[in-house]
């Protein structure tokens, strides 16, 4: 019986898939697997029994990735499961930025006691006039699951789309390999990239200076992609018309012409269900079959359902370890590297000499999946 600890509320659409071989526990100390959404695990004491952590969402900033990788604890996420929810929020953000809908709603609330409010509305509505998004240019930085969905929907709404992604070359979206092209032509710029050393504060004073006057910037990805002090100045000067983000903090809430939502990107019933289902399926596939899919710490290794008596999951660091394992166990082994960490699955007809497997140069954890 495997024990699964949920550190946040996880949709029952996912946990119901665990089956009879699993039981939910509130005690992290006894868990074989963890399901988590936003709870921080950086200070948590990870038990020796822990095999895997599945984030029911895309970002994994709340999980100690290096610590887990060093111990052979596989960290999964759910890429694409919340893509439609975030896409729809970005579209809502563009509409809020182009039409002063919020200002209009606030005017109505302030004038709700006025018996002549209908007549007053006809006089005041010009204060809230805006523009249409059809015909405008949307620059999308990052064309993963969210960015791609957004590109196709924006095109269907009559927008001109230009995408930038150094890792992708899409045939059905107009792309550029020069980020400055995005800055130069876009009326709206939206960010859909992970937080990495080369993306941290990528939108700063230098980048903003290359943009069109009155540009709208949307950030529903990561707060640290934007240099907030530089953006605040650009909003004051009018260089940037609006900044829309999903990250409430003292800086964003104090900015002029900034529309902030409280991290609502994936907050839909459908998204939470999709993420929970994907996370549970990843956990089960790894625990029962040793397969790794959608891990942020180890390579994708999918060897299907075990067909032999024994299946091993082997963690290693040395790039030559896989050849050493093949020499010891035979060719019925599948593995690879992700950064500094490697993982392989080996199927055997009979029990292996586990001490010999552990002795292969670079190997630091061996898990018996079956046998």
Mean pLDDT: 95
| Termini gap | 16 Å
Identify low-pLDDT runs. none
User: What is the H-and-E element order?
Assistant: EHEEEHEHHHEHEEHEHEHEHEHEHEEHE
Radius of gyration: 25 Å
Task: Give a description of the structure.
The chain contains 13 helices and 16 strands. It is of the alpha/beta class and 371 residues long. The protein has a seven-stranded parallel β-sheet, with helices on both faces. A five-stranded parallel β-sheet has the order 2-1-3-4-5. The protein has a four-stranded antiparallel β-sheet with strand order 14-15-13-16, sandwiched between helices. Helix 3 crosses helix 6. The protein is elongated, with a radius of gyration of 25 Å.
Task: List strands and helices in order, with pairings.
Blueprint: E1 2-6, H1 12-15, E2 22-25, E3 33-36, E4 52-55, H2 65-71, E5 74-76, H3 83-98, H4 101-110, H5 117-124, E6 137-141, H6 145-156, E7 160-164, E8 175-176, H7 179-185, E9 188-191, H8 205-209, E10 215-219, H9 228-237, E11 240-245, H10 250-254, E12 258-260, H11 269-289, E13 310-316, H12 321-329, E14 333-338, E15 341-348, H13 354-359, E16 363-370
Parallel strand pairs: 1-2, 1-3, 3-4, 4-5, 6-7, 6-9, 7-8, 9-10, 10-11, 11-12
Antiparallel strand pairs: 13-15, 13-16, 14-15
Brief account:
The chain has 371 residues and is of the alpha/beta class. It contains 13 helices and 16 strands.
């Amino acid at each position: 019986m495997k024990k699964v600890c949920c550190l946040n509320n996880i949709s029952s659409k996912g946990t119901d898939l665990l089956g009879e071989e699993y039981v939910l526990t509130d005690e992290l100390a006894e868990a074989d697997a963890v399901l988590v959404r936003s709870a921080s695990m950086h200070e948590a004491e990870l038990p020796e029994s822990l095999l895997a952590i599945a984030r029911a969402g895309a970002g994994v900033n709340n999980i100690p990735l290096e610590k887990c990788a060093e111990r052979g604890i596989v960290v999964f996420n759910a890429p694409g499961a919340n893509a439609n929810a975030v896409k729809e929020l970005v579209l809502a953000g563009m509409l809020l930025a182009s039409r002063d809908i919020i200002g209009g709603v606030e005017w109505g609330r302030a004038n709700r006691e006025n018996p002549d409010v209908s007549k007053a509305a006809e006089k005041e509505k010009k204060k809230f006039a805006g523009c249409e998004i059809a015909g405008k240019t949307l620059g999308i930085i990052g064309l993963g699951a969210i960015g791609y969905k957004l590109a196709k929907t924006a095109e269907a709404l009559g927008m001109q789309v230009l995408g930038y992604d150094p890792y992708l070359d899409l045939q059905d979206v107009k792309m550029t390999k020069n980020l400055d092209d995005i800055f130069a032509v876009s009326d709206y710029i939206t960010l859909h990239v992970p937080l990495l050393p080369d993306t941290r504060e990528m939108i700063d004073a230098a980048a903003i200076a290359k943009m069109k006057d009155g540009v709208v910037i949307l950030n529903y990805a990561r707060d640290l992609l934007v240099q907030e002090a530089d953006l605040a100045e650009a909003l004051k000067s009018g260089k940037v018309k609006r900044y829309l983000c999903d990250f409430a903090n003292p800086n964003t809430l104090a900015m002029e012409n900034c529309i902030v939502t409280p991290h609502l990107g994936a907050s839909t019933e459908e998204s939470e269900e999709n993420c929970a289902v994907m996370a549970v399926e990843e956990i089960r596939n790894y625990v029962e079959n040793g397969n790794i899919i959608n891990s942020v710490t180890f390579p994708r290794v999918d060897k299907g359902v075990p067909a032999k008596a024994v299946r091993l999951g082997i963690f290693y660091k040395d790039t030559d370890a896989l050849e050493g394992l093949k020499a010891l166990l035979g060719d019925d082994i599948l593995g690879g590297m992700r950064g500094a960490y490697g993982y392989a699955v080996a199927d055997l007809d009979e029990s292996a000499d586990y001490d010999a497997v552990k002795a292969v140069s670079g190997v630091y954890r061996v898990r018996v999946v079956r046998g």
